[in-house]
Design goal:
The protein has 95 residues and is of the alpha+beta class. The chain has one helix at 2-33, and strands spanning 41-49, 54-63, 66-78.
Length: 95
């Protein structure tokens, strides 16, 4: 009987610890992404298309809202003349 109670208490403590860890991670992550003025460097890839629907992939490097570097990745695609880009392509890639 004592083994069963000990096992149940151990399982309960593990579950409570796991729940606390998961909740604290979500809380910390939410607080970081909600910051308004993020001035740390980051990068992402984006396909940029021209008027003939030739799209080339670029690495966009940012620091806050400032674009610091744009580098072609070498990947590209030529879409048909009827293709319309469904994305909104702003001039300021980091803002």
């Amino acid at each position: 009987m004592k083994k069963i109670i000990f096992t149940l208490i151990a399982i309960l403590l593990i579950l409570i610890g796991s729940l606390f860890f998961l909740l604290s991670e979500n809380y910390l992550t939410g607080r970081i992404t909600e910051e308004e003025n993020l001035n740390f460097p980051y990068s992402y890839t984006k396909a940029i298309c021209n008027e003939t629907n030739f799209c080339e992939d670029y690495i966009i490097e940012c620091e806050g809202e400032k674009t610091t570097k744009i580098t072609a990745t070498g990947y590209s695609v030529q879409h048909s003349n009827e293709w319309e880009d469904p994305r909104n392509n702003p001039d300021n890639f980091c803002g």
